[in-house]
Known about the structure:
Elements: H1 2-8, H2 14-21, H3 25-38, H4 47-58, H5 67-94, H6 100-105, H7 108-121, H8 125-128, H9 135-145, H10 150-176, H11 179-183, H12 187-215
Helix pairs in contact: 3-4, 3-5, 4-5, 4-10, 4-12, 5-9, 5-10, 7-9
Amino acid sequence: MAIIDFILHIDGHLVTIVNQFGNWTYLILFAIIFIETGLVIFPFLPGDSLIFVASAMAANPRYQLNIWLIYLVVSIAAILGDSVNYEIGAWFTRAGEKHAWFNKLINQKNRLAAERFFERHGPITIVVGRFVPFIRTFVPFISGSSKMHYGKFITYNIVGGLLWTGFFSIIGFYFGNIPLIKDHFAIIIVAIIFISIVPIAIVALKKHIETKKESH
Length: 216
């Protein structure tokens, strides 16, 4: 349980990771972002908040993190992760459905939500879905399973990956440069909670509005 808690709240443990592992932190960032975006069975990893916290820490010289290197590492991880997830989706269409064990590993509720999101918005979902927890992990999988042309997918993948990681890197670095934050880094935890909840709240509100329209 302690290991699971550590993984789920790795953004909150990042200070400890930086202090213990130094430059190896970049590899850990790469691994977490790659796993969250690349493996459809790990949609619960804290991608948004992890990038945000790492970027906020980069604004403080004491942590010796380079914001440009963080952005490079997490953007490459996000793009490669989605590409791998696309291939997993394509494999699932060819042979995966024959393997019942694979279906059991996938959260079907989140998968169906992502499919509806994809059907409603089309390929731009690959970009927009990056900013929605859980949805971003399933969208590349659905792209591959729906046999979307890889050339189209990789274009949206690169744009979405650069925008998603860039957005959270910028606001994290800006937030970390605020003097109060540098002196009281615990405030970051409040920001993490806010960042994690807002995208989910937006999706829930949008769904509620659409449901009301359909009922009328």
